[in-house]
Write a structure and sequence with these properties.
By secondary structure, the protein is of the alpha/beta class. It is about 25% helix and about 20% strand.
Length: about 280
């Protein structure tokens, strides 16, 4: 019997840190016991959910340098971006390339996709997990949604997106475990990348943490916080979101809600993954 290929791992870093000898040690011990053996292949940095947390060029270069010293792929995460954010991403990639750094870029909107494709073609493009519009409400876990048997529920929409990314020159398709399953599917040339152990439930441009940090003693219009400078209070870590209508704990990290994926849901998706990106904690 052929031995299954060894899993490939990546670590999601928030600061350039010492790396563990076994990538499975990056997250809680209980998860390390559930994951198959594998080698560390890449370091992820940047942000998937918040334009305000796009790294400065010097910060990004430090991540790229760490990856280069360890012989690993550097991967820049990018969020949904407004025009000003796209300009920042363009300047960031231009600066990195001037220093000889060509990180792969995870694109979570089509503006970033086109920017990298047309302006920075030496950077490999990866389809981000926000492109997966699958079911994410953890309350559906109680209704039996599990992602087990993934493929049937993923549907035509997932197949069309995989085809679009493949034909557009993407290197990979990334996702977290959604409750319908099937998004990773038969990737057919795309690397299938799974984010664990925290899946996002919902995300948006309005950030409660940013609004609270920017509030004046008299309060102020909530919408005004969208364009205000942000001191990134989310860097202090996630906070527990108390809800009594979900079967799993929720965590708020900046503008995004997460939950820790139940093991059966993770296992159903692991069987379809070529790479697993491990997150130490929820982060935007």
């Amino acid at each position: 019997m052929d031995r299954p290929p060894m899993m490939e791992y990546a670590l999601r870093l928030e600061t350039p840190l010492l790396l563990p000898p076994d990538p499975r040690q990056w997250c809680a011990a209980a998860w390390g016991d559930r994951l198959p053996e594998g080698r560390l292949a890449a370091l992820y940095f940047g942000t998937e959910f918040c334009e305000d947390r796009l790294p400065a060029p010097g910060e990004a270069e430090a991540f790229c340098a760490l990856a280069a010293r360890r012989g690993l792929e550097a991967v820049l995460l990018t969020p949904v971006l407004r025009p000003a954010g796209l300009a920042r991403l363009d300047a960031l990639l231009t600066a990195l390339q001037a220093w000889g750094r060509f990180p792969a870029v995870v694109c979570n909107d089509w503006g970033a996709w086109r920017l990298v494709r047309d302006g920075h073609p030496r950077c490999a493009r990866r389809g981000g997990r926000l492109l997966n519009r699958g079911l994410r409400d953890p309350r559906a876990l109680e209704a039996g949604a599990s992602g087990v048997g993934a493929g049937a529920a993923g549907g035509e929409r997932s197949r069309l997106l995989r085809d679009f990314l493949r034909e557009g020159g993407a290197a990979a398709l990334e996702t977290d475990p959604d409750l319908e399953g099937g998004f990773l599917g038969g990737a057919g040339g795309l690397q299938r990348t799974l984010h664990l152990p925290f899946a996002f439930v919902t995300s948006g441009r309005h950030c409660l943490g940013k609004a609270a940090a920017a509030a004046t003693p008299r309060g102020g219009p909530f919408a005004g916080a969208v364009d205000a400078p942000c001191c990134a209070p989310c860097r202090r870590g996630p906070s527990r979101e108390e809800r009594d209508d979900t079967p799993v704990p929720l965590w708020r990290a900046g503008n995004t809600l997460f939950y820790e994926v139940p093991e059966p849901l993770a296992a159903a998706h692991l069987a379809q993954a070529d790479r697993v990106v491990l997150h130490r904690r929820p982060a935007p």
